[in-house]
Amino acid sequence: MKEIKEYIIVFLLGGIIYSFIEIIYRGRTHWSMTLTGGTVLVILYVLSEKMQPTDIVVRCLVGCIIITAIEFSVGYIVNIRLKLNVWDYSSQPYNLMGQVCPAFSAVWFLLCIPADLFCRYMRNTLFAGF
After folding, report:
1. Are 41 and 13 spatial neighbours (Cβ–Cβ below 8 Å)?
2. Residue 115: closest CA among 7, 26, 42
3. H helices of the chain, where?
């Protein structure tokens, strides 16, 4: 039960933080991005524990790949199948179906650094006595 509560809190924080970043960057967000952000942070939270002895660069690379894969999956469903047009990276070089591109994958890599630190902080401080 403790783990479920912990993951729910991490999911909610991820959704809020991801949406906030989008609002700062694009001036708007979409409910699908809130769910995506929550999912991503839960996965990064679990990975930060499982990959703890691994170098931060490797953890960020794995996180970047996971975020890019999730972004592509959500984009395929939300933008291509449902035609909600939440985002479009078609103008970016080397994009994949307008859903992901190397430039944003690099951003995800960099954002994995504070995300990893945040996940460790939550585990060691916020949830230590949970």
Report:
1. yes
2. 42
3. 2-26, 31-50, 56-75, 102-121
Grouping H, G, I as helix, E, B as strand and the rest as coil, residue 100 is strand
Q: What is the pLDDT of residues 60-99, one digit of tens each?
A: 999 999 999 999 999 999 999 999 999 999 999 999 999 9
Which domain does 73 fall in, by range? Answer: 2-126
Burial call 68-99: b when 16+ CB within 10 Å, e when fewer: bebbeebbbebbeeeeeebbebeeeeebeebb
3-state SS assignment for residue 86: coil
Establish how many alpha carbons lie within 13 A of residue 48's alpha carbon, considering only the half-sphere containing its beta carbon.
20
**Other C-beta atoms lying within 10 Å of the C-beta of residue 126:** 14
Contacts of 101 (CB under 8 A, 6+ apart): 89, 92, 93, 94, 95
Contact 48, 59 (CB under 8 A): yes
**pTM above the 0.85 mark?**
yes
Domain count, the chain: 1
